[in-house]
Write a structure and sequence with these properties.
The structure holds 2 protein chains of 2 kinds. Chain A is α+β, with helices and mostly antiparallel strands. Chain A is built from 2 helices and 5 strands; from the N terminus they run βββββαα. In chain A, β1 and β2 form a beta hairpin. In chain B, β5, α8 and β6 form a beta-alpha-beta unit. Classes of the chains: A alpha+beta, B alpha/beta.
Chain lengths: 80, 363
């Protein structure tokens, strides 16, 4: 039930922080999503969406770092 | 899809499997407390790919599965009444109550609707001012903020024909309950990534310290789960008991502050009954007194309904890791997703349903 999927913010509408909505692209499927819990969210951010709400901005640096770590796994293994 | 495909890459998964194999020197019991992770583990066969010394226990991580029978009976009682639009997430519709489920009641003519978000239910209330619109609010800390905003907006905009039937649950108290049990077998946890997206992971630091148990906050894709397992096993092998964050692209220690603030404002922490596990102190959320007017239990006078859990379902043992689904005599025989005896067979995130769908026992 805690299923949440990543999508990209295309446009943002609304002024009131609790009513702010984002038009979000989930690889082609677009949906209006509440940005009430991400007042700092901006256009082009990738966000995690659950039950109509964006709940986290994906930290692209962290994502890049973890992927880099996976690439270096062979090296890790040698250290084990 | 960006931020999904990378975490389903088979070459990376193979590297992680090799690393897990290398780091494992003895048997360990590791529990995931999130139905999404359970589903992913069984779907991708992760439990069959890792060393046999690693026993994965599928914990009480499916909110649909742990919603008490009493809450379903209250939902049925409300949905039955005239002039009601009863809204729910789809997976609650087939959970059996004492006598029937919401889907059967819908077939008999009740206006029961599946919504994607509590805000959709709020919109229905604004569009149908001559009807009472009730939202069946179940779920962990991930989902509770979505209900919190709907109720907050109902109060702010005086949408008085909206109300919520609340049965929300919190993850840390059930982890503590499991760890305190004399039957406990769990030696390490994969923490629920999206619960921690909202709540952060500071709540888990004292649990890891008190019970000397590693907790690795983990995502949902196969590569996430394999990395979470790798980190957890590595800690166990090294005798460590720390909280680690595998899902750092999404989760930070503080969590989502605006969501936590609204949770605090709209809900209060209460003792809560879990299906199969009984009452767990401080493990639930109920509407705070300030929002009592939007509490469906009070509005429709169902607060006094009391129901006993059925005895023939062993889901409580499954949820505690004391029994694997296939170890139950009723599994895939008298208990199937079409005719579930208990909730772990109903939701696709329930351990019994996941085993039923992705393993070949029933063929």
């Amino acid at each position: 039930m805690c299923l949440a999927v990543p999508g990209k913010i295309i446009t943002i509408s609304g002024e009131d922080p609790l009513s702010r909505m984002g038009h979000i692209d989930f690889s082609g499927i677009k949906k209006e999503i509440s940005l009430a819990y991400l007042p700092e969210a901006e256009i082009n951010n990738y966000v995690i969406v659950h039950a109509g709400f964006a709940i986290s901005i994906i930290d692209e640096d962290e994502a890049r770092e973890s992927l880099k770590a996976f690439q270096q796994l062979d090296q890790f293994e040698d250290e084990l | 899809m960006k931020f999904v495909d990378e975490y389903r890459d088979s070459a990376t998964a193979k590297k992680l499997l090799k690393a897990i194999d290398k780091v494992t020197t003895q048997p360990w019991n590791i529990m995931e407390v999130c139905g999404g992770q359970t589903h992913s583990i069984i779907k991708h066969g992760i439990d069959q790919l890792i060393p046999s010394a690693i026993n994965l226990i599928h914990g009480p991580g499916c909110p649909v599965c742990v919603t008490p029978l009493q809450a379903i009976d209250k939902a049925l009682e409300i949905a039955k009444q005239a002039n009601i639009i009863f809204c729910s997430f789809g997976d609650m519709l087939r959970v059996p109550g004492s006598e029937q489920d919401l889907l059967a009641l819908k077939a008999q003519g009740a206006d029961i609707r599946v919504v994607y978000s509590p805000l959709d239910a709020l919109k229905l209330a604004q569009q149908n001012t001559d009807k009472q619109v009730v939202f069946f609010a179940v779920g962990f800390e991930t989902t509770a903020p979505t209900v919190a905003l709907a109720v907050y907006q109902a109060k702010r905009q005086q949408i008085n024909n909206f109300s919520a039937l609340v049965s929300h649950v919190r993850v840390p108290p059930v982890m503590q309950q499991l760890l305190s049990s004399k039957d406990n077998k769990v030696q390490g946890f994969l923490g629920a990534g999206h619960v921690c997206t909202i709540m952060g992971y500071h709540e888990y630091l004292p649990i890891a310290a008190q019970y000397h148990i590693p907790i690795v906050i983990t995502g949902f894709e196969p590569v996430d789960i394999l990395q979470g397992l790798y980190l957890c096993i590595k800690q166990l092998e090294q005798g460590k008991s720390e909280v680690e964050n595998q899902y750092s692209r999404v989760v930070n220690q503080q969590g989502n502050q605006p969501a936590q603030q609204l949770l605090k404002q709209v809900f209060k922490v209460v003792d809560q009954n879990w299906r199969g596990l009984g009452e767990i102190p401080q493990s639930g959320l109920a509407l705070s007194d300030e929002y009592a007017q939007w509490n469906a239990e009070q509005r429709f006078l169902v607060a006094t309904i009391k129901t006993q859990e059925p005895k023939n379902c062993r889901s409580g043992e499954v949820l505690q890791g004391l029994l694997k689904p296939e170890g139950c005599a009723e599994f895939a025989k008298s208990c199937t997703p079409e005719h579930p005896l208990g909730a772990t067979m109903v939701s696709s995130e329930g351990a019994c349903a996941a085993y039923y769908h992705y393993r070949s026992h029933h063929v």
